[in-house]
């Protein structure tokens, strides 16, 4: 006897399931879209918060660096104003503490005197100027004349004593505003004249001048104006050094000068030829005029870019901060995975319900067998899905490492640890805070290692910008920087007569900084460091030597110390990545020289390198 009629009878009394697959699909898709939307909003809020914090850090770094420059100029102005008779030697002594390492991007610091005629006032009534100022070059386009009478260059360029700067409109405006304000004042940006003369267009930077009025010390604000002290600063170099640590590869930053509703890009980090940030926040906004009014908003976000106003010596500039690829951005990949997975599950369930609904009339008699088979199939599908998800996670991890350089995950980890410390640090117990501190220290050490690796990898390929380099000046600046926090000791470092050579100033400064720094660092405990920097003429070049009285290097390790990651047996307990000497050798070889180490007479090591003379031109 067939059971089908009975089954058919029960089926006739059950509700109609034809619309159930559609209901399942609609509900599943709705839930998926809701979860995806909530996740996206959460990621967006997190990204905005992290970007705001990073922008605040960048703003603080730029403002602090700018204040440091203006403070240095204020101190120099006070020192000069206190002089009743100023000679070139006095000016050199006052400026002796300045260096490109301390004021990165600064080109020169000039003392400027006004004159209503083509000649300066009687020196007995003013200051004793540089003898080179006797040949004045007046500019007939503007009066009164403003002559550079004393000059301290910081970038190795020639002195411009005697030049009339009254025709340089941005500098003239800054000097006039500085007199009105009684404070150091920054100018509008422009290309320095000496950069126009000696640099190709592709390497010129927008620069600015910070001018401070010099008055008699007895009446610094209301006394008779004696002149101006002006510091010229290259914008790109200034921003690059300022953001090397503050940005840390996490964001793109642009510094712009705003006039009306137009933003003019001054500098950016990382460097780019064109501006891609300020346009969307200023020129492309309908409410730009309102934002650039007398009381602009302190900050705002537009199209994923954070905009902030920063004041530099009385002039307000615009900072544009945007996240780099893969950091502090909403995780669109996660949104896509959730959406696709939810949609597939919803459609799969709808299809499954549809199949069950269509086949229900014919399969009721075999419901138990079909249910068992279905359960087994679902179990197998779950096993396969678990395996697929595991493989997917492995592939995603590999793709992440392949798509980004090693710094991307480090910067992300640093940011997340920073957020964790800010938001949940107070709720962690002592052990949790210790673990968090160790994690942040590990990330910082790894980042320093990657920085050394990057310098080591690019040392062979970075462009060589040759110029005349005064090694004596560089060595003195390095020693001043390295011993700034040490007790005074005139015997600590002795600098002999060093030559002027042809080479890249930044790279040669890095070599001397590394060798002198190692000589000061690798000293036995309790023994004062003794370092001697000297030079001797060799055939077609120079041999520069940095000798110390330190721990020394065994003979069998002298060649290996220039290999990457080499750490000698005697270097235990001293910090370092093992890449410094390897980078130095690559730099010297790029200059056509050689580098080595030998015993120092009386103990210690004597590191030397050679620099060939430039080829003669016909």
UniProtKB/TrEMBL annotation:
Organism: Cryptosporangium minutisporangium
UniProt cross-references to PROSITE patterns, sorted A to Z: CHASE (PS50839), HIS_KIN (PS50109)
Compartment(s): Cell membrane
EC number annotated for this UniProt entry: 2.7.13.3
Ranges for domain Histidine kinase: 401-615
Transmembrane intervals: 20-39, 337-357
Catalytic activity, as annotated: ATP + protein L-histidine = ADP + protein N-phospho-L-histidine
Top class in the EC scheme: transferase
Protein keywords: Kinase, Membrane, Phosphoprotein, Transferase, Transmembrane, Transmembrane helix, Two-component regulatory system
Entry protein name: Sensor-like histidine kinase SenX3
Residue intervals of the CHASE domain: 148-245
Annotated Pfam families: CHASE, HATPase_c, HisKA
Primary residence: membrane
């Amino acid at each position: 006897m067939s059971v089908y009629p009975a089954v058919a009878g029960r089926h006739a009394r059950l509700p109609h399931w034809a619309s159930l697959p559609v209901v399942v699909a609609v509900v599943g898709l709705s839930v998926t879209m809701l979860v995806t939307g909530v996740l996206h909003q959460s990621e967006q809020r997190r990204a905005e918060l992290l970007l705001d914090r990073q922008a605040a850090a960048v703003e603080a770094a730029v403002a602090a660096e700018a204040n440091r420059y203006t403070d240095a100029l204020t101190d120099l102005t006070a020192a000069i104003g206190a002089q009743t008779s100023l000679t070139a030697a006095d000016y050199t002594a006052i400026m002796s503490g300045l260096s490109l390492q301390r004021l990165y991007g600064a080109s020169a610091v000039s003392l400027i005197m006004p004159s209503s005629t083509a000649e300066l006032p009687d020196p007995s009534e003013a200051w004793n100027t540089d003898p080179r100022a006797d040949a004045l070059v007046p500019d007939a386009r503007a009066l009164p004349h403003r002559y550079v009478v004393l000059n301290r260059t910081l970038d190795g360029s020639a002195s411009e004593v005697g030049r009339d700067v009254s025709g340089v409109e941005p500098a003239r405006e800054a000097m006039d505003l500085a007199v009105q304000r009684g404070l150091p004042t920054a100018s509008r940006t422009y290309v320095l004249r000496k950069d126009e003369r000696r640099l190709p267009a592709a390497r010129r930077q927008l620069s600015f001048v910070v001018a401070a009025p010099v008055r008699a010390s007895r009446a610094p604000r209301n006394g008779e104006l004696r002149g101006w002290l002006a510091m010229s600063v290259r914008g790109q170099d200034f921003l690059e050094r300022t953001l090397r640590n503050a940005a840390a590869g996490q964001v793109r930053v642009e510094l712009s000068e705003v006039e009306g509703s137009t933003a003019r890009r001054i500098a950016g980090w990382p460097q780019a030829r064109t501006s891609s940030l300020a346009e969307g926040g200023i020129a492309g906004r309908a409410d730009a005029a309102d934002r650039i009014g007398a009381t602009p908003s302190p900050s705002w976000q537009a199209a994923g870019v954070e905009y902030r106003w920063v004041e530099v010596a009385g002039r307000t500039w615009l900072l544009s901060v945007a996240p780099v690829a893969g950091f502090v951005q909403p995780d669109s990949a996660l949104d896509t995975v959730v959406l696709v997975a939810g949609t597939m599950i919803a459609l799969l369930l709808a299809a499954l319900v549809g199949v069950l609904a269509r086949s229900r009339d014919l399969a009721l008699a075999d419901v138990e067998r079909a249910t068992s088979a279905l359960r087994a199939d679902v179990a197998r599908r779950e096993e396969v899905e678990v395996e697929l998800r595991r493989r997917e996670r492995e592939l995603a991890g590999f793709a992440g490492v392949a798509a980004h350089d090693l710094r991307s995950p480090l910067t992300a980890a640093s940011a997340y640890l920073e957020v964790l410390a800010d938001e949940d640090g107070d709720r962690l117990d002592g052990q949790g805070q210790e673990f968090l501190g160790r994690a942040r220290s590990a990330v910082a050490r790894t980042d320093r290692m990657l920085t050394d690796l990057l310098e080591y990898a690019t040392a062979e390929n970075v462009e060589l910008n040759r110029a005349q380099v005064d090694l004596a000046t560089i060595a003195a600046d390095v020693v001043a920087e390295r011993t700034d926090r040490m007790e005074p000791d005139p015997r600590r470092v002795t600098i002999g007569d060093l030559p002027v050579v042809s080479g890249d100033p930044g790279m040669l400064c890095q070599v001397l900084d590394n060798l002198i720094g190692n000589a000061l660092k690798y000293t036995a405990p309790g023994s004062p460091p003794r370092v001697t920097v000297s030079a001797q003429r060799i055939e077609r070049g120079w041999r520069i030597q940095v000798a110390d009285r330190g721990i020394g290097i065994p003979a069998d390790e002298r060649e290996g110390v220039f290999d990457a990651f080499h750490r000698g047996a005697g270097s235990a307990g001293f910090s370092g990545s093992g890449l410094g000497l390897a980078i130095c050798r690559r730099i010297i070889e790029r200059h056509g020289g050689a580098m080595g180490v030998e015993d120092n007479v009386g103990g210690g090591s004597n590191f030397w390198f050679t620099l060939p003379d430039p080829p003669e031109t016909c």
